[in-house]
């Protein structure tokens, strides 16, 4: 088992990565025998993993209740979060209880948001079951729900007490979900590590075949990069904004298409290509580097073009509602080379439209 730590003073927490680690003693720290907890998962995972996790929680002496939500991005709403709050109240959970998120990014975001507001804040533990959640969404304390007019527009920063990454959970994933998660992995390489990008070019096929050694290295690498960033910029006032590479474009695709029509990673893959094209038009990014990114996305099985029924102009209203917009100006993360990126303000909308059109 590999262990990392997100350093945030009194709110620091461990990330545990390994195979079948749910079965290890004391893995559910800071929970102790006799503590009360509520497991939050979805209908799909209820049939696949829930009983195993509940068994080991009870074996550890934890008093565990459970709530099962609908599965899918379209259910990442205030209505579903209220289901969690109601279950906590009905079962008479107090401020000393701990929520446990068993699922992908949707369950993690919903559970974390509920934890942040229930009785003004309770602990929660992340057990991410998708690759996307394991390398990105479960770490860093961003929680929230979607609004019909924009993704993740309602939420809070609320750090988990621990993150438990069991790579065996990935065996339950449909192939397209596994591929979707690789978009965030590739994002980290583009942003911070050219050598990691080269490693992905060589090993992507075996990672997708769930080679345990390569998969563990891949997940640990992403967790290390994100942990370092969060430790210096928890609330995205500076460097953490880099993690939004491709997201301003990608969130527009998700909102326009209806949440759930495009998987998050699929939309982000296209968004990264559009960001790269924007940087190329501005003269910041070499065409050869953009071609390497497109080739890696295709090799992974990710899309590189947006929805056919979405015109370039239809991206702009969603992009203007993005949380990163300041004083009516779009802010974009653009790659400068593979391994380096920066945040840019005041980019001409015509350039953005041209980049979307030519992607």
UniProtKB/TrEMBL annotation:
Subcellular location: Cytoplasm
Pfam families named in the record: DHQ_synthase, DHQS_C
BP GO terms, sorted: amino acid biosynthetic process; aromatic amino acid family biosynthetic process; chorismate biosynthetic process
Record bears the keyword Metal-binding: yes
EC number: 4.2.3.4
Predominant location category: cytoplasm
This protein's UniProt keywords: Amino-acid biosynthesis, Aromatic amino acid biosynthesis, Cobalt, Cytoplasm, Lyase, Metal-binding, NAD, Nucleotide-binding, Zinc
Domain (3-dehydroquinate synthase C-terminal) ranges: 181-325
Superkingdom classification of source: Bacteria
Cofactor binding, per record: Binds 1 divalent metal cation per subunit. Can use either Co(2+) or Zn(2+).
Cofactor(s), by name: Co(2+); Zn(2+); NAD(+)
Binding-site list for Zn(2+): 184, 247, 264
A GO CC term attached to the entry: cytoplasm
Occurrences of domain 3-dehydroquinate synthase N-terminal (ranges): 67-179
Annotated PANTHER family: 3-DEHYDROQUINATE SYNTHASE, 3-DEHYDROQUINATE SYNTHASE, CHLOROPLASTIC
Function: Catalyzes the conversion of 3-deoxy-D-arabino-heptulosonate 7-phosphate (DAHP) to dehydroquinate (DHQ).
Family, as annotated: Belongs to the sugar phosphate cyclases superfamily. Dehydroquinate synthase family.
Protein name per the record: 3-dehydroquinate synthase
Gene, per the UniProt record: aroB
